[in-house]
């Protein structure tokens, strides 16, 4: 889809590399500009086969150039690459690219059709703009982190870098929009993607819900408050996710577990006695047994898989979600492009 599109990638660590990985998997040629010592993610623990696994996961299919942007000769090499490029994406702090004469205003004077994306922590016009920051900060300042709390009301530290990854997705989205616009009017464009702002945008529903209901955890029925949209423990201490919001799916579940009397309890709160009855039924079977039910009954039921179980699951095996290269397994962002299915 993006064959023939050339991207110059100045980003490091996770958000930017994830953005350009998505574009590379759509067919773009990504030229990754690294400093003399490489992207710091190359040396970030955990290491595997002499290289940081975070780097390995997010930079496959890219062509790296190791250049010192403070060296005139290397800087000129970069500018030559830019002349043949369609897109630039960078994630330096504000002002760095301008000092290197690699900012959008300078480049568009000799390359007016360039699509330029700056992936930053905080947007402009705030005292945070030049501050250092990471995923946890964007999660915190957006209100997202406060959505997961323990029994004592303390926010739960996430084990996934949600803001970094979503920021990368939005950056790739903006690059694609810039390319579409260029195809229409033959003009380049500049895009600044703030990861803090991106996370805040994801909280839009929560803000409106709070204004109307004063509830801080978003849509109440989606927050584990009803029997048909909840997590349930199995007999062996594992968990299943039941998302039977629509009555037809709840009915399918109730009939599958031979409790037709529960059908009338659709949308009942977990404070209702039926909740304990459903919990008891889930604890009658093992995790493996419930996976069998989830694959046979159309009732919005899925297993809560551990990371090592995901590649082996029937769903991901059927989708071809993982590629294996030299004993490494990597997730395909676009398995549908590599494994096209016939449309019915």
Automatic annotation (TrEMBL):
One function term, GO molecular function aspect:
catalytic activity
The signal peptide, as residue positions, is: none
Tell me which Pfam families the record gives.
CoA_transf_3 (PF02515)
Query: Which superkingdom, per the lineage?
Result: Bacteria
What is the protein's name according to its record?
Answer: CoA transferase
The protein's organism comes out as: Cytobacillus kochii
